[in-house]
Structure formats: structure tokens, C-alpha cells
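Give me C-alpha cells for this 118-residue protein.
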Amino acid sequence: MSEAVMNFDVEDCNGIRLIHVSGPLDSVTYDQFKQFMDPQLRQARSRVVLDCQNLTYVNSRGVTLLLHYQRTCKLDFSFLGIAALRPRILRNMQLLGLDKLMTWFPTIEEALQTAAAS
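Here you go.
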């Protein structure tokens, strides 16, 4: 059985970092995701959009980390937009009421527009 891996691709969109992530965000990839994202969000007034259309799974630790990142960004006057979550992942978050705690965008374009206005 092969080990789960996350892949990241970063694109600059007029000063907004668009991060395309693919793979599962689970116990195996949690540290890899955190090590990649921490430096991305440490910069003051950073504007980041996380493209989740190829994010295949998110466990509770992953959701907690995403919520932590968004809360920290708000306090630092930064922006983290979580965009294009798969319907199954979004439905699970909605069932738990987590969609009310997290700012998410149905499309990457909407997240980029909001980031540009922030």
C-alpha cells in the first residue's frame, strides 16, 4: 500500500497566492500540509486562496487546522479563502455545522474576487 501524499502548486494571481492542493488531508498528510501552509500564512497581510477542488478527503484534524488558519488570518488582517470544496466534504461540514464557522467560496473566482477586495 502506498503512502498518501498531498501535492501543492502555487500560482500568483495579482498578488494573491492561489494554492492548488490535491490529495487527502488526513492523519498521514496533516504534517505535510501544515509544513507547507504555515510559511504561506505567516507573512503579514497575506492573501491566500486555497483551491480545494482536488482535495479528496478532510478529517477532523484537517478541518480544525483550516479553522485555525482562518481565525489567525482574520486576527492578522490577512485573508484565507477556502474554495471549491467537493460536495461530499462540504456536506459533511454542513452536517456538523462547521460551514458556519468557516468562510468558504463555491468557486475559485469568487474567492479571488473577495481576496482582491480585502
